[in-house]
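User: My instructor asked us to take a sequence, write out its structure as tokens, and then describe one feature of it. I'm not sure where to start. Here is the sequence I was given:
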Amino acid sequence: MSLTFHWFLPTYGDSRDIVGGGHGVPVGTAGGARPASVAYLGQIARSAEQLGFAGALTPTGAWCEDAWLTTAMLAEVTERLTFLVAFRPGLLSPTLAAQMASTFQRLSGGRLLLNVVTGGESTEQRAYGDFLDKDARYARTDEFLHVVRALWRGETVDHDGAHVRVEGARLARVPDPVPPIYFGGSSGAAGPVAARHSDVYLTWGEPPAQVADKLDRIRGLAAEAGRQLRYGIRLHVISRDTAEEAWAQARRLLDGIPEADVRAVQEGLRRSESEGQRRMLDLHGGSRDRLEIAPNLWAGFGLVRGGAGTALVGSHTEVADRIAEYHALGLDEFILSGHPHLEEAYWFGEGVLPILRRRGLWRHPAGEPVAGAPASVPFSPQPVPAGR
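Assistant: Let's start with the prediction itself. The structure tokens for your sequence are:
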């Protein structure tokens, strides 16, 4: 089975430095040096498509642009790229969500994937009018996805639950294909919901042994539910021609950030209700001194931003080796990002993906590239081979 790679669309802006946002206190102004315009995000999306990424994740939250609207616009400037739209079940009705997904599939040619985000921060949820606690939010997500799945099967749904109530709900047209559901969550409340409803279970980038333990737990829950899931991982990446260049870039990203800013971000992140965020914090303990927490796995991003806090750092071959190691644990989908997102997509796409292709682990979604004819260089006695 070929590995699947997704890139990331920074709908809060981009920069050559780390742009804060998400669970913690922003390092700088969300928006960075490159605002999240359709023109710039379109550059990233088209580049990801050309390089061989199958899709692109868009985040959700008050600190970024709306994922549904942004990706609907970007579908017009791309041809094949799928969009992994993050959304929060408590902020719209299941019938409307099912209808929106159906419309997106028809008008985009089936290019929607859905990332269900239950919501780990009560403060942010309350700003949207959601006053449930964390466990109740997962219970609501369970009911929500039960209704959505039934609607996508073409059923007429009556549901009177603790958190979701619909009567006579039905779609005029069901989505074709039904969008896969991606779901992450490390807490005890998250696991059973993921096992019952997700197609792809996602983890943040923890050391391989911790990832293996988590996947074993979710596999067991899925087996109890009579289901088999696919598994993916969310990571940043810094890949260069040499390991020295990659680590120099990692150090550069942190060197300009004052220690006071790091402490402020860490203080904010420690208030998070997210179990996944707590696990990210435990990887580095708030210190710059022990950031390579496993071979080529760097926890520096987690010092200064919320959410996914680790990166694969190294030469193209080393990064490919680590991806193969994670794949051996059962991970088939990789959602990657890097600052800035346009340039880092090329470093990975032109450096790492060809290695994985040669190893038989990946193939371009559009098929194998056609070798070009030798270039004709004026005044050169010999033609220059393609690819030089």
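For the description part of your assignment, you could build on this observation: The two ends are 30 Å apart (CA to CA). Try explaining in your own words what that tells you about the chain.
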